[in-house]
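CO-FOLDING WORKSHEET

Operator: S.A.
Ligand of interest: zinc ion
Run index: 203
Mode: holo prediction, single chain
Checklist:
[x] sequence pasted
[x] SMILES validated
[ ] output reviewed
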Amino acid sequence: MFFRIDHARLMTKCLLCGFAVITTLVCIGVLFPDKGDAAPQGSNAIPTKQAEQSMPDESDSVQTVSTDRRITALKSTKVEWKLRFNGCGHYITLKSQGDIAGMDKEEAKAAYSDYSAELFTSAYVSLVKDSDGFCPEHYVMLSGEDGDMLEVYKRNTQTLENEHITSIDISPDRFAEDIAALQAGGLLFNSLQEINEYIESAE
Ligand SMILES: [Zn+2]
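OUTPUT RECEIVED:
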C-alpha cells in the first residue's frame, strides 16, 4: 500500500515535474532559439552585411581615387622648389618660383616645365630642377686654360654662379693620376684645407 501510494505519488510528482520540466524547456526553448538565433544571426549578419557593403565600397573608392580624383595643390599646400646638382647629388632649396595653387601634377609640370614633381600631395609638393655641376658646398679644382696652373672655383650660395676663388701656381702635370679629372670636370674638395693637403702631397 505504502509503496503503491508512494509510487502513485511519485508518478504524479514525476508527471508534474516532467510537465514542469517540459514547460520550462518549452519556455527556454521558445526563448533561447529566439535569443540564440537572434544573437548569432544578429552578430553574424551585421558584420557580413557590413563586409558585403563595405568591401565593394572600398574597392569602388580606391578605383575612384586612382582614376577620377584629381590631386591638386591648395593654398595651404607646402610647396618646395629645389635644385639638384648632378655632379654631387645634393639639393638646395630655392625661393618660390611661382604659384601652383589649384593645379594638379600635370598642370604644374606644364606650367613649370624645368621642374619635375618628386612628390605631389595636397599637403606637400616637391618640385625639382636638375642642374649640372656641383652644389655651393664644394670647391672645384681645375686645370687652368694654359695648363700650367690650377684654378679653384666655388659656386656662390646666393647667385649660384661659379666664382673664382684662387689660382695655385703649380702644374697640373704634377698630379698624373688626376690629370684627366683636372682637365675635365674638376676635382672636388670640401674645404680649402683639403686643397692645401692635396697640393702638399704632391710637393
Ligand atoms: Zn654637393
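REVIEW:
The helical segments are 2-67, 105-111, 179-183, 192-202.
The first helix runs from residue 2 to 67.
[x] output reviewed
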